[in-house]
Design goal:
The chain is built from four helices and two strands. It is mostly helical. The protein has a two-stranded antiparallel sheet. Helix 2 crosses helix 3. The radius of gyration is 16 Å and the shape is globular. It starts with a strand and ends in a 7-residue tail after the last helix.
Length: 146
Amino acid sequence: MQRFEVIKKLSSKDILLRYILIAILATAINIAIQIIFLRVYHGENALILSVLCATAIGLFLRYELDKKYIFNAQHKNMRSDVRKFLLYSSMGIFSTAIFWLTEWAFHIIFASNLMRYVGAGIGLSTGYYVKYHLDKKFVFNNSISV
């Protein structure tokens, strides 16, 4: 069995700063993908598809950034990385629910694209906070053999 190895212990301050920067970057990319998608596609379920597309791209981006810059984890082989990604993704169910529910609530309450994006930012920020703690405990804790 392979394990992810932590190569350097980061201070809490370093982790917080990195996490905030990555969250801001990922949030901006998520919202940009939604905007671009909605400018290109105007068909049925455009809004839902834009959110799904941005979420999928964001998942891969966040995994790689969190793995490298937050948890300093390296994988030994593709199989262990795929397993770790699947575990990471399953933890994302909770943060994604927070994000989507907040974005949709703002969309319904305010009926405005600007406020929907504000809701997305709030939902993503809250979701990232929850996700960090789930990932730290269950995904990148070095006690789970994969």
